[in-house]
Design a protein that fits this description.
Elements lengths: L4 H12 L2 E6 L5 E3 L1 H5 L5 H4 L4 H7 L2 H15 L6 E8 L5 E11 L9 E8 L1 H16 L2 E8 L5 E6 L3 H5 L3 H6 L2 H5 L3 H17 L3 E9 L2 E13 L5 E9 L1 H15 L9 H18 L3 E8 L2 H8 L1 H17 L6 E4 L4 E7 L3 H17 L2 E2 L5 E2 L3 E7 L7 H17 L5 E4 L6
Helix pairs in contact: 13-14
The structure holds guanosine-5'-triphosphate.
The site of guanosine-5'-triphosphate has 16 residues, from β11, α13 and α14.
Length: 428
């Protein structure tokens, strides 16, 4: 014989561990099941007589108002069901978090009155874990989150901690409601890289690690995202991770990088950086063709300047010349002090004749410059320069520089304060 609907329903409710309640809105009658009472450590007999006050007296006073408001808004037609979590006092003196859900049944008892029927579930453990997670998230120096990407590319945060406010200027509720907001504040220059790295991590299931900038009202913050992806059987990828502020670390990194490529005295690039840029330009030329030229400048009789006017005056001569070269070259040119009184200018997309023209202009500008020593004596300074262009028969950067040096040497030998040019770059 098939089980009755009532038996089946009871078995289902027993399985879920839910208490049930029925509340007649017109008569005020209340019907509770045994589980409703045992969830709070009581039997129904102990709670008798059962009325609305039975719930009221056990509910946390601070939760009564919100629960009644939730009921009122459901009865006003807002939401498909009544739903609310409130605390209730267990017989053992502990508060339990109860998740209550209910619906209105007009004809439930066939007597024309309205019955609200629902369930109670004890969600204390979930609430406690959630509270612990929130406390943990608060004490962490970054954002923790769970990010989910569907196979069709749709994405959302199933959890994100409140630190989003500090780093992204976005409330965590907003990030959950509209996850795109979290990408809208990524620096435009970094956005593509961030998206590509997420795509790569989803494909390879390798850890996602990405440093990028977040731009909130003109304030830039460097952050680092680190998270582990996992793919479920539906192809959905979920990352659990953390985003931290790395501003201090990044500033230090950038400072160190700056120091490692800069000449301290003049603020120009140093020899190491110039060699790196020359190698880059050579590789680019080999791959895509094009042209670039190099000017090597050396101050004439600089030793005599030091000897006559002192080392500090020599230093300020170097600084003045550095400024002069920077003013008279393009932004795309790279200028470095590559030795004591030697400078190199790398001029991308510049033919030999144009580079020679620039070298001559620099030579004349320096010769016209009036210098004053620490003792107030006036003097002038000249330079010699070698100019060379990268061509098809240039074998390496080393060869290019060697040809440039030979031109410079020719300029010195021919009397200084002049520019020598080499078209071919075969050092022999
Ligand atoms: N003030 C100052 N002098 C430097 C610096 N680096 C190198 N020097 C000096 O630059 C001088 C270079 O001398 P030399 O290599 O003989 O060249 P020069 O006197 O310019 O002679 P030519 O190049 O042949 O015209 C040396 O006296 C170095 O001590 C620096 O940072 N500051």
């Amino acid at each position: 014989m098939p089980l009755s609907a009532e038996t089946r329903l009871k078995a289902i409710l027993d399985g879920t561990g839910a208490g049930t309640w029925e509340y007649n809105l017109d008569t005020g009658d209340i019907i509770l099941n045994d589980r409703w009472a045992s969830m709070l450590g009581y039997s129904l007999e102990e709670l008798a007589p059962i009325s609305f006050q039975t719930w009221e007296s056990l509910c946390h006073p601070k939760d009564l108002g919100p629960a009644n408001e939730a009921l009122a808004s459901y009865l006003n037609g807002q939401g498909p069901q009544f739903e609310c979590v409130f605390r209730m006092m267990h017989k053992d003196g502990e508060w339990r978090h109860i998740h209550s859900r209910g619906m209105l049944l007009n004809n439930g008892k066939n007597d024309g009155t309205r019955w609200l029927m629902g369930t109670h579930l004890d969600v204390t453990e979930e609430k406690t874990s959630q509270h612990q997670l929130e406390q943990l998230a608060e004490s962490l120096p970054g954002i923790i989150y769970t990010f989910v990407m569907e196979p069709d590319g749709q994405f959302h945060f199933s959890y994100i901690s409140r630190k989003t406010e500090d780093l992204y200027g976005i409330h965590s509720d907003q990030a959950i409601a509209d996850p795109q907001k979290m990408f809208d504040v990524v620096h435009p220059d970094d956005l593509q890289r961030v998206q590509d790295s997420i795509g790569l991590s989803a494909e390879s299931l390798c850890e996602w690690v990405c440093d990028y900038r977040v731009l909130v009202e003109d304030r830039i913050t460097w952050v680092r995202g680190v998270s582990r992806p996992e793919r479920d059987t539906d192809g959905r990828v979920t990352w659990h991770g953390v985003i931290t502020n790395i501003n201090d670390q990044k500033r230090l990194e950038l400072e160190l990088e700056h120091l490692s490529i800069t000449d301290e005295l003049t603020g120009l690039f140093n020899r190491r950086y110039m060699l790196h840029k020359l190698e880059e330009a050579a590789a680019e030329n080999e791959r895509y063709g094009g042209i670039f030229s190099v000017i090597s400048l050396d101050i004439d009789f600089f030793k005599a300047i030091n000897d006559s006017w002192g080392h500090p005056t020599g230093d300020s001569v170097l600084q003045t010349i550095a400024k002069l070269i920077q003013q008279r070259t393009r932004k795309s040119d790279i200028v470095a002090r590559t030795g004591g009184e030697e400078f190199i200018v790398l001029m991308p997309n510049t033919a030999l004749a144009d580079a020679r023209h620039v070298a001559d202009a620099l030579r004349m500008a320096l010769a016209a410059e009036d210098f004053v020593s620490d003792e107030g004596e006036r003097f002038t300074v000249t330079l010699s320069a070698g100019v060379v262009s990268w061509s098809d028969d240039t074998a390496s950067v080393r060869d290019l520089l060697s040809v440039c040096d030979r031109s410079l040497y020719e300029a010195k030998r021919a009397g200084r304060n002049r520019v020598a040019v080499r078209g071919g770059t075969n050092p022999n």
